[in-house]
Amino acid sequence: MKHSTTRFIYRLSEIKERYNELKSSIPAHRIYYSIKANPNIEILTFISQLGLKAEVSSPGELIIAINAGFNPAYIVYGGPGKTIKDIDFAAEKGVNYFSLESLSELDKLDIVEKQIGKNFKRILRLFIPNNNGRLNMMMPNSKFGITLEEVKNYVANGDNDVYGIHLYSGTQINETGFRASVIQTNQIVSEIESIIGYKLKYVNYGGGLEWPFMRSGKPIISPTKVEGILPDIESCFEFGRYLVASCGILETEILDVKERNGYQILIISAGINILNGISASGRLIHQQPDFHVSNNKNNNIMLPTAIYGPLCTPVDYLTLNTLLPQLFQGDILTIPNCGAYAANTGISNFLMREPAQEITVE
């Protein structure tokens, strides 16, 4: 019996192009790849061979990063809610860099250091209210980061050196905002150095450059050098979406076609079980996916179209109103820019359908 076509196809050459663009524009000491964007092992192996380092925020991400060839000594372990068990596990695997989100996490790192007799590189993830990006990670009640007041208390009551700072305020930031954020971060570096009384050795400027999700387009960073990156420090940036989004397309098969109220209604093989259920239907980031007909039908008549996934729930849709030519069962649709936050963000256990295939090509 023929199975439906539901697969992500990743073109590795796209990742290399994006990395070369970043290297040309950003004279940084180190560029991290954020594993959460796409943890496919073949993609990770390719990225590690390009020379990037890894940013992880869970034991599972750490394991797959090491298996893909990333050197644990240069992996930065971040994310909120770290437990002593998490920190100890990462330390055992060889992690030295910890981006810490709270005074409690700083205390937990102290405990692990005393237990194993080793000092780690303390990086303070700072809470600096900022509205950059379509997803603001620094809203007033954000779970992320340590306030400047908390830094002052930590320095006054502790005797452990701060190695560096980490700022990441949002994602889907345009290039102008991204370039401006470097200068803003440098101001924070100066402020922290005045609080602690010595020079920092590390600064993670974040990243978050915008890239379309499920839509056409390539907002490539201009080749002009990013100005203001501090030269005498471990200057780091982290990117996920920018590096891998363009490498992936999703192929999905039309399983059924209905006509109702002047609309063609398509049921396709990729629903919210395959794509990010929140983003795909516009609940988190308003998106209208671009659907391309892969067999180039010569049909100039465009029909109002609603596109649903195969799950037995009314929330399983990708769009309720787009225009497409007349389509039939068995036709294939493709969606561009599905290399990031796609295959790894579907609702895989809901209705327990098969995951999409993931295929890498040169």
TrEMBL record:
<feature type="modified residue" description="N6-(pyridoxal phosphate)lysine">
    <location>
        <position position="36"/>
    </location>
</feature>
<dbReference type="InterPro" id="IPR009006">
    <property type="entry name" value="Ala_racemase/Decarboxylase_C"/>
</dbReference>
<dbReference type="GO" id="GO:0009089">
    <property type="term" value="P:lysine biosynthetic process via diaminopimelate"/>
</dbReference>
<feature type="domain" description="Orn/DAP/Arg decarboxylase 2 C-terminal">
    <location>
        <begin position="242"/>
        <end position="339"/>
    </location>
</feature>
<dbReference type="Pfam" id="PF00278">
    <property type="entry name" value="Orn_DAP_Arg_deC"/>
</dbReference>
<keyword id="KW-0663">Pyridoxal phosphate</keyword>
<dbReference type="InterPro" id="IPR022644">
    <property type="entry name" value="De-COase2_N"/>
</dbReference>
<dbReference type="InterPro" id="IPR022643">
    <property type="entry name" value="De-COase2_C"/>
</dbReference>
<dbReference type="GO" id="GO:0006596">
    <property type="term" value="P:polyamine biosynthetic process"/>
</dbReference>
<dbReference type="InterPro" id="IPR029066">
    <property type="entry name" value="PLP-binding_barrel"/>
</dbReference>
<feature type="active site" description="Proton donor">
    <location>
        <position position="312"/>
    </location>
</feature>
<feature type="domain" description="Orn/DAP/Arg decarboxylase 2 N-terminal">
    <location>
        <begin position="12"/>
        <end position="219"/>
    </location>
</feature>
<dbReference type="InterPro" id="IPR002433">
    <property type="entry name" value="Orn_de-COase"/>
</dbReference>
<dbReference type="GO" id="GO:0008836">
    <property type="term" value="F:diaminopimelate decarboxylase activity"/>
</dbReference>
<protein>
    <recommendedName>
        <fullName>Diaminopimelate decarboxylase</fullName>
    </recommendedName>
</protein>
<dbReference type="Pfam" id="PF02784">
    <property type="entry name" value="Orn_Arg_deC_N"/>
</dbReference>
<dbReference type="InterPro" id="IPR000183">
    <property type="entry name" value="Orn/DAP/Arg_de-COase"/>
</dbReference>
<comment type="similarity">
    <text>Belongs to the Orn/Lys/Arg decarboxylase class-II family.</text>
</comment>
<keyword id="KW-0456">Lyase</keyword>
